[in-house]
Amino acid sequence: MQQTVGADPYFPANGDPRYRVHRYELALDYRPGPNRLSGTARLNAIAGRSPLAEFQLNLADFRIGRVRVDGRTTHYTHRGGRLRIRPGKAIRTGAAFTVEIHWSGNPKPVRSPFGGIGWEELEDGALVASQPVGAPSWYPCNDRPADKASYQIAVTTPSAYSVVAGGRLLTRTAKASTTTWVYEQAAPTSSYLVGLSIGKYQTVLLGDPGLGGVPQAGHIPARLLTEFSRDFARQPAMMTLFEELFGPYPFGEYAVVVTEEELDVPVEAQGLSLFGANHVDGGRGFERLVAHELAHQWFGNSVSIADWRHIWLNEGFAKYAEWLWSERSGGRSAQALAGLAHRGLAGKPQDLRLADPGRKLMFDDRLYERGGLVLHAVRCALGDEAFFRMLRGWVTVHRGGAVTTAAFEAHVARYAAEPLDALFASWVHETALPALPVAGVAIPDRPSYPPSGG
């Protein structure tokens, strides 16, 4: 379910709402030593409600080799991260068109209010973590979260390296000293959620998916195998639980990459999550983050946001999934964790409005915690049976689409016996912290994960 939205108010220079892309085909060649990237992109796109005399893509400071629209060389300008393209003839309303671009250079993070984001050259390899505006650091894209497309990504790199991307590995072809890896992500994907990692990894399977199960793999430095095996041992049980609570896993497979280097926080991509070596301690010290990143596959990736004002719909839901996992795996209950979060928020400034936090506060810790508390308040109001029906319905109705806070409020109202306008007004649209929601919210008569004795 795709919504039509305008320019993103937090990042108006990113994305062009006058058209949408429905498929990217990227062919990349990367040499880690000199950090040299060259690529060819083919975009299949559809014009919007007005003819396109010109349009723009986002791409960082690379050298452009050629630009073609529908096979014809065309005029373009490339300044300040914007590639403005003017076809020889305006593209008519609603028409399909193709764009081909060749670019090359030394990829690096793009500047943002949160520091450098996007392509990161590592000591021995590379990593892409693009939230929110880092995708143009390595490929030309219509960089707005609501413009979701399928992807095919082919990466050629020296054979000593593994390439991991979100989606299904179609082929791996070795030629002399290089290997080409081709991945297909058929599900609609936001540009910032296209993940990529190039490094020297050992690949392990997590659990046995069985018939119809979700294949799960870990790609890790060999030295961390023992610690990883313990820290991620319960991820298959998380997958089972989340499929029960949220509905079927929305993609074909799920991969986890652990880099040799440290990351401030793990980062989700579509069908893929990226962790730093500092998140693997052999003691399950970061298990809540394993749950958080997995939950993003439903909330944020399959059900995406229409623009960045609504980021709490990604982070609050993933935070609440952490609490649900704790509750169901023998840890503290969601009510206890909600109490901890509420006490923490009570001692902090009351100037965050979830419905529109502003660019400066969109990754504030308070947004995550308060977002989790919204879900808990809704759960207390609806009761467990209606709450989990509501969550599964939300994921089902909006699978592959883009949503807003207003859409969520309207969705919840369908499951409520009485209006919840006051709940959403106080928790989502106002800044003062409401009282801690309390109800008998333990999930009744369901097995723990892992089962006793497992």
TrEMBL record:
Catalytic activity: Release of an N-terminal amino acid, Xaa-|-Yaa- from a peptide, amide or arylamide. Xaa is preferably Ala, but may be most amino acids including Pro (slow action). When a terminal hydrophobic residue is followed by a prolyl residue, the two may be released as an intact Xaa-Pro dipeptide
Domain of life (superkingdom): Bacteria
Main location: cytoplasm
Domain Peptidase M1 membrane alanine aminopeptidase: 237-427
Aminopeptidase N-like N-terminal domain location: 130-193
InterPro entries per the UniProt record, alphabetical: Aminopeptidase_N-like_N (IPR045357), Aminopeptidase_N-like_N_sf (IPR042097), M1_LTA4H (IPR034015), Peptidase_M1 (IPR001930), Peptidase_M1_dom (IPR014782), Peptidase_M4/M1_CTD_sf (IPR027268)
Top EC category: hydrolase
Keywords: Cytoplasm, Hydrolase, Metal-binding, Metalloprotease, Protease, Zinc
Name of the protein in question: Aminopeptidase N
Organism: Streptomyces ortus
